[in-house]
Structure prediction request, 746 residues.
Amino acid sequence: MPFRKSLFYGNRIMEDGLVRTSPTDVSFNDPAVWKDIYGYKSRGENQFVRDRSLRGKRPGSGIGDENEAVHARHRRILSHAFSEKALRGQEGIMQRLVDLLISGLKLHLKEHGSEPVDMTKRFNWTTFDIIGDLAFGQSFGCLEANRPHYVISMVNDIFYILTRSQPGNRLPILKPFERYLVTSDGLDALPRFDHFALSTIKKRIEDGNSDRRDFMSYILAHNDRKDFTDDELTTNASALLIAGSETTATTLSGAAYYLLKNPSAYQRLVQEIRSSFNEEKEITISEVDNLPYLAAVIAETMRIYPPVPAIMARTVPEGGKTICGHWMPENTIVSVSQYAAYRSDRNFARSDEFIPERWLDDPRFKNDVKEVFQPFSVGPRNCIGQVMAKAEMRLVLSRFLWNFDLQLSPESTDWPDEQSVYGLWKKAPLMLHAHLSGSITRECLREIWLRKREHDPNLQIPDPMIAMPPGKVDYSLKTDLESVRYSTKRVLQDFQDDGVRYLELRTTPRESQEHNFSKAQYVSTILDVIDECKNETMSTYLILSVDRTKSAADADLLVDLAIQFKHRGVVGVELGGNPSRGDVSIFKDAFSKAKQNGLGITLHFAEVEFSSSPQELTTLLSFQPDRLGHVINVPDEIREEIVQHKIALELCLSCNVHAKLITGGYPDHHFGYWRHRDCPIILCTDDVGFFCSPVSSEYLLAAEHFNLDCSMLLDICRKGIDSIFGGPQEKTRLHNLVNEFEEQQQ
Prediction:
């Protein structure tokens, strides 16, 4: 009964050696158990079959069928979808979806600033989208929609119900009470999931696209004799989805957590990845296979945090069997608990510590019993997709660590302890921080790093020039006023070197208890630097940004701050932040106050579909903005209102393309639409450090992709001048500069 109770409540099974966990259950953690129970058997030898108490009713037979001949038939046909040739063909699908993961995280971090991101959720979206695309011919759209698909909760419910119904399956006396004991909607999850799978599979078959390199293309190509019925196709696709999504996401989440809990391992892996490639496009499935420490990290993650922690139960066949030297009578339920076996001091030295070096022939671990480590099982029923799973984990983790520098958020410090097991891990949110450097270049960051290291020789942050190859911009440095001063000065110099003659710098005011400064001191520090750098070549002003995820009171305080520093060069306020959150109507009074006090107003507008409802856009226009940023997902009637009022538009081609805020590339950018309307356009850069595109590059991109000559670009500049916030004298100065430049070109 304690074993049944443990299963019901999702507790982990921790046993050592040979343990009888119930009158009919015995668990082993000896390495010989894999061969004895799960390995290949001689012809005619009785096989161990799966514990029927953990089986659900399926519409047709599949690769998980208990009958060995049926299983072998399914595996033979499915194996074509998991060959090396197939994997090469599937890489494009994987890379495209990893692109969406990376771009979605960049947008999230850009909009959220220092707020943590839940990587449990993001990794789940990624692996479900990948396996959905491969198994069913279409992604579930989680990454694109930035929200989960209902199938994810179905899969979780399936494991929940299978595990919690096992006591009733083992003890029939409990079966009548199952519906009362199992309160989850999971009772209906399996039939609902099969209905979804069948309809999706039929759609893929009817599509008939043989050029698409997904699982189904290989299965159908080798199904000439109609070996698979529609029900069998459904059962197999469902099995591949369940096996190939949750487990892979679990390993990725576990790797992120244990790396961040072990800084030396994290730094070593980051160094290996970033020193092995010059550009992100070089990170391919074949190339990441050559990273030994990456392989060691994934192996160590699967040891200390096995994606299938529960028992892998089998039934001893008729006549009984000897297992690890112990005779077991027929019908005994035998198993190996991976969690217990991998955490046993009998098998691994320092078994509760995350040490990837144990997989790299470190002599400290020469006595580790590595033969017990079989995360993909062994024998005829080992994981058919293990090559693909390893490739996917290596690819995702490499590109993730190439793009982002990470910190574990305090609420996830004890992340593994917050989980239970229902067949698979019921994972808690894994909250990570990634700090963006905004318009600060890697060279500037290195100079700040050197200054900090002079004062603190024990500084744990790595050299930015090593941690940040060209094209990377995320880096973690504490924000103190001295660093703010230094980075602001470098930013101004970088813009001036790029040929900028008028600059409106934007910032979200920050405060720090650690470094003892307020938002007012932060703003004042930036304005001090602007004053110190003032010259006849470039004029600089400041815009303060309101975060739409904050409260109306926060916005009101920020506007008061802008008014307070208006005499020193604060010329406007901006509404930005995460476009998928917040009610913008609460900020109307704050922006009205800004308008009444002579401050310019610029708003992030229709940046993503979620924030592009007619109601929100109409509300924003009621703020009487002087300028609108992004203007991507704008309905026709709202477009006409923008044109009617000739509202100026701030457009950034590189930001919208790289963050995938638009569909397509530069030629598809909405700049092509707006430049033919009677609205001033201001070409901007949205975080030089983040998207690695200075202002001059934005003009070059516009010229190259929209066939603009010098006179056309000058015309865009002239129209945009009247929309600056710097006042009439600055407008006159800029018009004169444009005229002088035009005369020089003639």
Summary: The longest strand covers residues 539-547.
